[in-house]
Amino acid sequence: MNLFTIENPFLRITLSDLGATWLSCVVKMPSEEREVLVTTSAKDWQKQTAFFGATIGRYANRIANAEYSLNGKTYRLAKNNGNHNLHGGTLGGDKVVWKVESQSEQAVKFSYIFADNEEGFGGEVKAFVEYRLQGNELHISFDATTNQDTPLCLTNHAYFNLQGSRNILDHKLMINAEAYLPVDSSGIPNAPLKKVEGTGFDFRSAKKIGQDLLADDDQKAVKGYDHAFHLAKNSENLTACLTVEDLKMELRTSMPALQVYTGNWLKGQPNLTNGEYGDYAGVALEPEFFPNSVNQPELLQFGGITKARENYYHTISYRFII
């Protein structure tokens, strides 16, 4: 694992070539330097199983029964989440070493070639991930091409806790989404998109994450929020906002959905002080296509398959406001 630091007067970002990982995000507050990622040390990173800050690929989230059919052929994938495929498989993009394509004081660009039939997926994918600092913002861009039609959904799996507290239940969250996707207890979509209005999934106005936690059967199935929200607007508009008393993080993305995972199963993961995190210690906000979209046409309409020689390009930006 090689580490890379990019820094300016607002932020200090530490990256790793193992998983093209966002390992640390230090915000330079007036009275302190504050780590805002739920993360672990470089020496303990391979002990964690929560995908802390990693680049996820070739397909983020779950593919039901670890298989899909495309262009008349069925592909069988690694089963690494019960009977399902999660985040690309046993050796997804989070567990491989990425090549450093370029490096400067403000940016690092990584690349990795997913081989044809790697983890069972068809097609070779040449993927690039760039982290770039610009003032009080971190921009992540994902750029890829493939030599045959293939499922492709790259994202970052950072968890946030903006005040280093025991959990994120008092963090206020706003999500610019009018619908969410119900799932079964294994995280596979089991119903059409559902309006957030009148449910515990309504974050159109900022509210504490803990306010409606576990208040309905959809959440109880997965021990909290672990659902994709259908975003109302594109990257030019605010996607989500996470807030504590003295710090706010604004997220924007070009992706159509945002998986919100409230760290329901973080208990036992290694922290930065040789201890362990508890459940709900951080919240992951993962811009992506919808889970299992490759097997559900009503979800695939929002994306999930990249055509041969077609350019895949998506962005995420994080702005930190003191």
Structure description:
With 322 residues, this protein is mainly beta. The protein has one domain: Beta-galactosidase, Chain A, domain 5, CATH 2.70.98. It has 2 helices and 27 strands. It has helices at residues 217-220, 297-300, and strands at residues 3-7, 11-16, 21-28, 33-35, 55-56, 62-63, 67-70, 73-76, 85-86, 99-103, 107-114, 125-134, 137-146, 150-151, 155-156, 159-160, 172-175, 177-180, 194-195, 207-208, 226-231, 240-244, 247-253, 257-261, 283-288, 305-306, 312-321. The strands form 7 sheets. Strands 10-11-12-13-27-23-22-17-20 form a 9-stranded antiparallel sheet, with no helix packed on it. The longest helix has 4 residues, at 217-220. The model has no long low-confidence stretch (mean pLDDT 97).
CATH topology call = Beta-galactosidase, Chain A, domain 5
Total individual domains: 1
Main CATH class: Mainly Beta
First-residue to last-residue Cα separation: 32 Å
Radius of gyration: 18 Å
Oligomerization category of the chains in this entry = single chain
Number of continuous helical runs: 2
User: What CATH architecture do you see?
Assistant: Distorted Sandwich
Order of helices and strands: EEEEEEEEEEEEEEEEEEEEHEEEEEHEE
Shape call: globular
Structural class: mainly beta
What does the main sheet amount to? 9 strands, antiparallel
The average pLDDT value, as a whole number, equals 97
Percent strand: 35-45%
Can you count the beta strands? 27
| Helicity range | under 10%
Residue windows where pLDDT falls under 50 for at least 5 positions:
none
With strands numbered from the N-terminus, the spatial order across the biggest sheet is 10-11-12-13-27-23-22-17-20
Family: Belongs to the aldose epimerase family.
Organism: Mannheimia varigena USDA-ARS-USMARC-1296
InterPro entries: Aldose_1-epimerase (IPR015443), Aldose_1/G6P_1-epimerase (IPR008183), Gal_mutarotase_sf_dom (IPR011013), Galactose_mutarotase-like (IPR047215), GH-type_carb-bd (IPR014718)
Pathway: Carbohydrate metabolism; hexose metabolism
